[in-house]
Amino acid sequence: MQEIISDKAYYLINNLIRSINQVIVGQEEVVKKSIAAMLCDGHLLIEGPPGLAKTTLVKTLSEAVSCSFSRIQFTPDLMPSDITGSLVYNVKLNDFITRKGPLFANFILADEINRAPAKVQSALLEAMQERQVTIGEDTYPLPSPFWVLATQNPIEQEGTYRLPEAQADRFIMKILINYPDINNEIKITKKVLNNEVFISKSIISLDELQFLKQKIQKVFVDEKIFKFAASIVHSTREKSFANFLSFSASPRATIALIKLGRALALIEGRNYVLPEDIIYIARDVLRHRIGLTFEALADGKTNESIIDVIINTTNIP
Questions:
Q1: Distance CA 128, CA 132 (A)
Q2: Is the dihedral of CA 295, 298, 304, 310 positive or negative?
Q3: Residue 197 near residue 187 (C-beta atoms within 8 A)
């Protein structure tokens, strides 16, 4: 029988998941993984067609945790100062004053991040890494928690700027979101028509969110789990995959697997990480951290199929 790490932690997380699933219908796995990323302070990249509640997901999470929310619509003409803020001249004071941008919020939705040029992408990703923004000569810390969920539209390619691999690596996961089945689509339609797509009150406070983050640090990770996660990532660099992969995963992938494994264990009410936790999250952690060669693409390979082969050929403890 699994050991419950904390009755309070287990209740808080499951109450949060249950409340969000009432709003975000038919995307239980996406909700679970999003909360896991949030609990370990990992930024999230979601790819999916328009209209699949990506914006609603982030807004619902911000309402559930009682945090400030900011949505930034990325466009080709966006400038770095449009998101970070700038110095504005005040005639009355005869001096420059700082006007902070939309990045100064707890939860940030970077909508269609690949529509903005490299300078804007870099400004956002620098803020994600450093948790601070420099405006003029002064540096300002960003609010805590600071969580970025960026979306990409895989359908439209015109007028988009591909997210560089080194910057994509800063996201703890890349989740693919798909269309709901017909039954869930009917439920979604009824909720929208009845104006039920919102949470009326916060589910957990910022202090309770911090409590959950502290609990994650106490989740036990066996040495065999460390080796299992590292072996999966290290396999992407082996010669046997050299003909298939143009670039491999960095140590950030191993760190992400362990962090998310701990978060998933806490969500399930365990105080230890299982190999199944690592396997469950491996695709989302690795799919944006490896690149396929032309030969692999011509052979019909996908990032997911390569990851599956790696997992199936790695010894499970």
A1: 8
A2: negative
A3: no
The domain 219-317 having CATH identifier 3.10.20.310: the answer here is no
Contact between 151 and 47 under an 8 Å Cβ cutoff? The reply is yes
Report how far residue 27's alpha carbon sits from residue 52's, in angstroms, rounded to the nearest whole number.
9
Residue 255: CB partners within 8 Å, gap ≥ 6? none
What CA–CA distance (Å, rounded) separates 197 from 239? 50
CA distances from 196 to 21, 23, 52, 72, 185 (A): 12, 7, 16, 24, 14
Q: How far is Cα 101 from Cα 107, in angstroms, rounded to an integer?
A: 13
CATH code 3.30.70.2200 for 1-196: no
Nearest Cα residue to 105 out of 65, 147, 66: 147
Distance CA 153, CA 50 (A): 7
pLDDT digits (tens, 9 = 90+) for 44-87: 998 887 777 777 888 888 888 888 888 898 888 888 888 998 88
Phi, psi for 175 (deg, rounded to 5): -105, 135
Residue 6 neighbours by CB under 8 Å, 6+ apart: 215
pLDDT for the residue 35: 92
189-213 average pLDDT score: 81
Radius of gyration for the chain, computed over Cα atoms and rounded to the nearest angstrom: 21
Measured CA to CA, the distance from residue 293 to residue 301 in angstroms comes to 9
Looking at the predicted structure, is the pLDDT value of residue 200 above 80? Answer: no
Of 121, 82, 117, 88, nearest in space to 103 by CA: 82
Determine whether 87 is exposed, middle or buried from the number of CB atoms within 10 Å of its CB (0-12, 13-18, 19+): middle
Ramachandran angles phi, psi of 271, nearest 5°: -105, 20
User: Residue ranges per domain, the chain?
Assistant: 1-196, 219-317
